[in-house]
């Protein structure tokens, strides 16, 4: 083994000293020839005969030098470098061909790299802690199969019984309003965590200390740990912050630590309090599942073992507590999987199509160019080059082209990724989701470059490598172009390019139309004039529904008295910004149907809500001051609800109720009488859903949204609104201030982004198809220039010469359009669920795409043919 390593090392040294060793070998060879020549002269030979005999005995210098190089160096690496140098010189000489191939491949590789960078940042990144693959998240499924959290009592039992994890920890996100002496109250995203959270993650504060077990017990002195960003922004990064007392949600707490920069577990938290400080945690019933759990797998334990153990624990708790835990299942998954949604399949398919089109384009260019290289390949074969050697040379050229395209592709991917990152900067993505060009992205880029080189380069290289030498020498390689197989390959690839481009164009057109319809539907509300903000009341100070309702009524009254505010309202959710989804039962449903239920979004609103957002009820009346009181259980539904669940019947006066599993004493059955029908407005991404509005008095939640219509520009009212909230409670900040138009744009971001990216990819695909058709037509014309000269010399007109080439293209275009439209219809069926209010089989869309693609194809073909028909016949006849 040691001898083999020494020999390999010697070869590496020799490879980097090749020139010096060649000079030494030359001198040694001349020395041997000189000595033998002298010996031969001494034997009576003439000097000429003596030198000739010496050369015959020693051997030719060139042959011996090659043998010496093979014996001492790295033959494969030297050959590869020779192939690369030859390919570089060749491509530098054929700049037009090189630019066309690199441009085509760069588009395909660039968009694939951009999409992979986005998927890598949002779907493949691990939690930035030690051994992130061992951090697992826990949840539950109730009897109806709905995802739920874990109750505090179940968490305690799981901690005691589990052996598959080195530890379990619990957390719950919360809004935290902090007030520091001398500064206005500010809002921070915070989390209540069990005391062992940071130790399980193997993270420590940069200053101060971690939570201790004594901190996480009811009645302990309130303490807090803050994030690095909050430390810098609120306390100017002063180390003296440790031990300082602040007010959190109206209650004092002592800061005991500061976490490292960038650490914001579990999502975007900037403050952490012990779980025992969570309001009502000690008295929560076992069926109140509002905690998230995570744990670190113990050494030597696999995920399936942990799942088996937790399933057994859940089954034991179901037997012990059948009322609250019957049919409750434990769910275990990698921590980041709960945040990683699937990327849109249409985008992944689209970038694959673009890459295939780029490869087909490059392959066509190489096939068309093969005719020019046939004499070169025939000469190589005649001089003794093997098929393998020629194939390796041609694949090396393909790798060089693909590598250059990969570097150019990065320049295409970078602005796409930067644009997506800027658009989503304020979307509240988890702190570890970052769109960066890391090692994984560059590895993907290298793999795509190699795969692409094989994909587009193998067929042309194989055809040149296996072609018969005699045929190529006989007619200078013209049979390479005229061959039936070559024409079939070129025709098939052209048809495939056109078909894939049509599929992408049709899909993009359908998605654009859907996004436009979504935008038009949102214009029912005049968003730019409406300013919104969020308020979170601390449970310690506003623990009852009556206390919260009194605060909201006082705030509405105060805002209503300000002249610069035309109208103000409070609701638990806003248009475009989401709402709580609930199961709904109608008064006419039988029991079996009631258990199955219907789905609707639910939000509670103040009496001035519809006036503020500028919506007039279609029928019925708005809420008044009595609605929501005992015995006044009423609701307003939107038109979508009435159309979906009451069909042709009148919804006014009908009764509905919400269900969350079986009714319990803590959630009695409440029937709501419908008193009004509101216009349909989106409250979630995609198509508008059925919505049920409740009076705010019925559900005055701790966190609400304030919406204001001012007499001046909306955003200018922000300081005034903050001040009015502070006058009511100095510890309350108004946060997440934005216009309703901005919320509308954010809610439409996914369909808008998907349609924009798909449109970009469709444009790239169309451009690639046009470039490919143009280049192949140009090469075909160049091979038939003499024929063009003869036809023109015999009296052919320009249109006749042009038709000679256009007629051959028409069949390809027609076949490509037919296949493409068929594929587009199939893809449209798959996209039906993502096309709200849009006909997935819209004939006008498909017809427009077919006409557009046909025009692009014909222009790409006509330009070179019309130019070729203008050639001087004398020049064309002399062309070789």
Structure description:
With 880 residues, the chain is an alpha+beta fold. It folds into four domains: 2-73, no CATH class; 132-338, no CATH class; 345-519 and 750-878, no CATH class; 538-731, no CATH class. The chain contains 28 helices and 22 strands. The protein has a six-stranded mixed barrel. Helix 17 crosses helix 27 (843-868). It is globular and about 130 Å long. The model is unreliable at 469-473, 475-482 and 661-666 (pLDDT under 50).
What structural keywords apply?
6-stranded mixed beta barrel, single chain, globular, 54% helix, alpha+beta, 880 residues
Question: Could you write a compact summary of the structure shown?
Answer:
The protein is an alpha+beta fold and 880 residues long. Helix content is 54%, strand content 15%. The model is unreliable at 469-473, 475-482 and 661-666 (pLDDT under 50).
């Amino acid at each position: 083994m040691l001898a083999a390593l020494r020999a390999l090392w010697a070869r590496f040294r020799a490879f980097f000293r090749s020139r010096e060793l060649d000079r030494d070998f030359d001198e040694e060879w001349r020395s041997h020839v000189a000595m033998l020549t002298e010996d031969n002269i001494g034997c009576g030979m003439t000097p000429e005969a003596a030198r000739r005999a010496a050369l015959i005995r020693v051997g030719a210098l060139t042959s011996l030098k090659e043998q010496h190089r093979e014996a001492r160096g790295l033959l494969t690496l030297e050959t590869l470098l020779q192939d690369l140098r030859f390919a570089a010189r060749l491509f530098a000489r054929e700049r037009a061909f090189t630019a066309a191939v690199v441009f085509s491949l760069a588009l395909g590789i660039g968009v694939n790299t951009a999409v992979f960078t986005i998927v890598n940042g949002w779907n493949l990144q691990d939690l930035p802690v030690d051994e992130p693959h061992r951090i697992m998240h826990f949840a539950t499924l109730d009897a109806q199969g709905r995802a739920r959290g874990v109750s505090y009592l179940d968490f305690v039992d799981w901690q005691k019984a589990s052996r598959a994890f080195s530890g379990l920890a619990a957390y719950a996100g919360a809004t935290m309003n902090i007030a520091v002496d001398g500064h206005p109250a500010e809002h921070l995203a915070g989390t209540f965590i069990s005391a062992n959270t940071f130790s399980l993650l193997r993270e420590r504060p940069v200053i101060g200390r971690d939570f201790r077990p004594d901190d996480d017990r009811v009645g302990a002195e309130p303490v807090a740990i803050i994030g690095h960003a909050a430390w810098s922004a609120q306390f100017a990064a002063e180390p003296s912050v440790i031990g300082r007392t602040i007010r959190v949600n109206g209650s004092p707490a002592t800061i005991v630590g500061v976490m490292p920069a960038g650490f914001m577990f579990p999502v975007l938290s900037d403050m952490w309090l012990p779980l025992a400080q969570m309001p009502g945690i000690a008295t929560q019933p076992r069926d109140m599942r509002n905690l998230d759990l995570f744990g670190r797998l113990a050494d030597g334990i696999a995920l399936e073992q942990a799942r088996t153990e937790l399933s057994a624990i859940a089954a034991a708790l179901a037997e012990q507590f059948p009322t609250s835990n019957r049919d409750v299942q434990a769910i275990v998954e990698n921590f980041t999987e709960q945040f990683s949604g699937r990327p849109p399949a249409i985008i992944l398919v689209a970038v694959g199509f673009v890459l295939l089109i780029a490869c087909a384009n490059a392959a066509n260019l190489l096939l068309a160019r093969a005719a020019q290289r046939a004499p070169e390949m025939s000469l190589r074969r005649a001089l003794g080059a093997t098929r393998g050697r020629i194939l390796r040379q041609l694949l090396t050229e393909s790798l060089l082209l693909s590598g250059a395209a990969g570097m150019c592709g990065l320049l295409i991917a970078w602005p796409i990724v930067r644009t997506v990152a800027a658009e989503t900067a304020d979307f509240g993505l988890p702190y570890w989701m970052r769109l960066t060009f890391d090692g994984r992205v560059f590895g993907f880029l290298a793999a795509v470059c190699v795969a692409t080189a094989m994909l587009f380069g193998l067929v042309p290289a194989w055809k040149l490598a296996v072609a018969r030498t005699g045929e190529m020498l006989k007619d200078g390689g013209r049979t390479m172009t005229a061959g039936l197989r070559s024409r079939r390959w070129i025709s098939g690839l052209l048809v495939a390019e056109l078909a894939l481009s049509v599929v992408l164009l049709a899909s993009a057109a359908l998605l654009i139309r859907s996004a436009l319809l979504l935008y038009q539907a949102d214009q029912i509300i005049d968003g730019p004039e409406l300013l919104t903000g969020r308020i979170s009341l601390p449970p310690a100070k506003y623990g009852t529904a009556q206390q919260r309702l009194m605060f909201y009524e006082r705030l509405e009254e105060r805002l209503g008295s300000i002249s610069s505010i035309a109208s103000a309202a409070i609701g638990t959710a806003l248009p475009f910004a989401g709402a709580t989804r609930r199961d709904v039962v109608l008064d006419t449903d039988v029991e079996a149907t009631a258990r199955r239920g219907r789905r609707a979004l639910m939000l509670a609103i103040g009496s001035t809500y519809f006036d503020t957002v500028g919506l007039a009820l279609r029928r019925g009346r708005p809420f008044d001051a009595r609605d929501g009181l005992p015995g006044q259980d009423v609701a307003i539904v939107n038109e979508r609800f009435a159309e979906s669940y009451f069909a042709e019947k009148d919804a006014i006066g009908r009764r509905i109720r919400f269900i969350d599993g079986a009714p319990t004493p803590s959630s009695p059955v409440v029937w709501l009488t419908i008193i009004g029908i509101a216009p349909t407005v989106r409250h979630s991404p995609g198509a508008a859903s059925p919505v049920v509005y409740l009076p705010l008095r019925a559900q005055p939640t701790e966190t609400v949204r304030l919406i204001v219509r001012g007499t001046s520009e909306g955003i200018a009212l922000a300081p005034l609104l903050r001040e009015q909230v502070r006058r009511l409670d100095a510890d309350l900040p108004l946060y997440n201030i934005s216009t309703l138009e901005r919320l509308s744009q954010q809610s439409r971001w996914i369909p808008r982004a998907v349609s924009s990216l798909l449109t970009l990819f469709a444009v790239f695909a169309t451009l690639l198809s046009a470039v490919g058709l143009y280049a192949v037509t140009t090469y075909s014309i160049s091979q038939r220039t003499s024929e063009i000269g003869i036809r023109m010399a015999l009296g052919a007109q320009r249109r006749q010469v042009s038709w000679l080439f256009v007629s051959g293209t028409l069949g390809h275009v027609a076949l490509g359009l037919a296949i493409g439209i068929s594929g587009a219809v199939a893809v449209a069926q798959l996209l039906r669920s993502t096309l709200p209010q849009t006909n997935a089989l819209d004939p006008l869309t498909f017809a427009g795409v077919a006409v557009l693609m046909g025009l692009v194809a014909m222009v790409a073909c006509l330009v070179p043919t019309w130019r070729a028909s203008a050639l001087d016949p004398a020049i064309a006849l002399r062309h070789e």
